[in-house]
Known about the structure:
Low-confidence stretches: none
Number of helices: 12
Strand content: 15-25%
Distance between the termini: 27 Å
Number of domains: 2
CATH class of the largest domain: Alpha Beta
CATH topology of the largest domain: Rossmann fold
Radius of gyration: 20 Å
Helix content: 40-55%
Strand order of the largest sheet: 3-2-1-7-8-10-9
Shape: globular
Oligomer: single chain
Amino acid sequence: MNNYIDKLFFSLINEIKSKNANEIYFNMLTKFKMIPFTTQLSIQQFLNQFNYWGKIEIERDNYEMLWLKAKVFCEHIDEFVWLYKKLNDYKSKYILFSILNNFYNFDFENLKNSIECIFKHYFDLDLIDRLKDSVFVDVGAFVGDSTIDFVDSFQKDSYNKIYCYEISDKNIERMKENLKGYSNISIIKKAVSDKNEKLYFDENVESSANQISKAGAIAVDGVSLDEDIGERIDIVKMDIEGGERKALIGMKEHIKVDTPILLISVYHNNTDLFEIPKLILSYNEDYDLYIRYYGGCIFATEIVLIAIPKNRK
């Protein structure tokens, strides 16, 4: 252990390693019940809006989310250690500790300290300080907010072309209005996945959390980026409610050949935090890895993996 962040992280890891899944779950449940009841209810309400991490139903004594997290800790703790050692700065390492400690001990303070307060969501200028005539792909473009942040962060000469993928007609109409003052932007109503096929979804009330599946009320064309974009890709932002892994599989050749900057949400699944960086590095080892955190201080979401090509340095 070289410093206090290493000490924090490995002390937590060693504690978790000393317990079986039931003991880890009991620790998490005990810590959850120690927080104010109003906060428990707030976490319950938030979790149960989505089908990502498991439910909490306090009145029914159902703490599925805690049990699923405990199983991941028990079965994959060495994967978190692998990720920690791969991260390229101590800010990322501290963020990873804070996320895991939030899940395990319901620690709000360190998570609060991890929140990015300077740069726009995804676009950390300490890691990506310049772009010129790039091709930017916004996967899960919503209403164009990330595309606007991209242009604001790097200025209009930073890109030559922007592709915005979105599946909701309602969002696309708002995006067209929001982006009408920008040039060379293609808004594409397709679901980015691992292959070209018909996919489906049900419109989420929030309309920012639409999940693609094999069934649903609304049909949409699914595409892979390897098939859909023939030119070089320089930078990709991806936030598609748990579909990120399949979308990355579908852009394997772009990752291998282009080595684009990757800005990937890694919080929609209990194992994305380590499985997605492993997948990226299996395609192309020429990346430095970072994590940035854009969520709140109660329950860790809005976690972004930033993969930067080593040759940018």
